[in-house]
Amino acid sequence: MSLILSIDTSTTVCSVALHRGGALAACYELFTEKSSSGMLTTLIQHTVQHSGHQLSELDAVAVAKGPGSYTGLRIGVSTAKGLCFALDKPLLAIDTLKAMVWQINGFYPGSYALCPMLDARRMEVYCAVYDPEGRVIQPTSAQIIDEYAFADRLAQQPVVFFGNGAAKCRTVLSHQPNAVFPAQIVHPSAKTVGQLAALAYEQAQFEDVANFEPYYLKDFVGTKPKKLVV
Could you tell me which residue ranges the Gcp-like domain spans (predicted)? Predict the structure, then answer.
């Protein structure tokens, strides 16, 4: 029975979970307005210790690979790789958006399409479109949201827009009868990363720990420091 530690730092939410044989054994999540990934190692310690296990007992470490926050992904993946090297355990990488689909797919029948969205800059989101079984309908992309976004898909079927980027979509697509917006924000979570990781573990879908990189989707763009006026 596999024991897998899962990490998700794709957004400002820092999430750690432990799954035993695919069942959730423990989970800690920290919700803050700013990045909370600096608390990651503390959450890992609490999750493992409070479940009655030790890090040495792990069979694998899983991480949400992106898309998402550049800094958050970098911290999460670096931590996961460090654990794999130190413990000599395999690494599993799970698509952040697909793991989000697993949070809500049981609430919507097969006629719906599910579109997880993560906030990017301005009117842009990172998104993909899935069916309720988790099969990709439209691959991951950086999408500019305007009144024409998803027009072809919405003409065919109801689409559920969810995640912290869905608010941008609601303001311009609420007039569309097939556009569905859940009442609550769905945040990426290590809970569903771990569920998918258990399946990936059974199929030995391991990553090359030394060379694995997060799926940033877009290059990091830093802000230029302002000139000091004296």
Answer: 35-219
- Pairwise CA distance, residues 167 & 183, whole Å: 11
Give the per-residue pLDDT at 61: 98
Using DSSP bridges, classify how beta strands 124-130 and 136-144 pair: parallel, antiparallel or unpaired.
Answer: antiparallel
Total domains in the fold of the chain:
2
- And the tokens for 226? 């302002």
Contact between residue 47 and residue 17 where contact means Cβ atoms under 8 Å apart:
yes
Give me the residues paired with residue 91 across strands: 61, 207
User: Is 198 contained in some domain?
Assistant: yes
- Domain with residue 24: its CATH number is 3.30.420.40
For residue 170, the surrounding DSSP H or E stretch is helix 166-173
Q: How far apart are CA 84 and CA 97, in angstroms?
A: 23
Structural domain that includes position 137: 98-180
Distance CA 154, CA 131 (A): 14
Rounded Cα gap, residues 161 and 114, in angstroms = 7
Where residue 223 falls among pLDDT bands split at 50, 70, 90? very low
- Segment 28-52, tens digit of pLDDT: 999 987 767 779 999 999 999 999 9
Q: Determine the 3-state secondary structure of 86 from DSSP.
A: helix
Burial of 201 from C-beta contacts in 10 A (0-12 / 13-18 / 19+): buried
pLDDT digits (tens, 9 = 90+) for 8-27: 999 999 999 999 999 999 99
Q: Domain check: are 9 and 91 in the same one?
A: yes
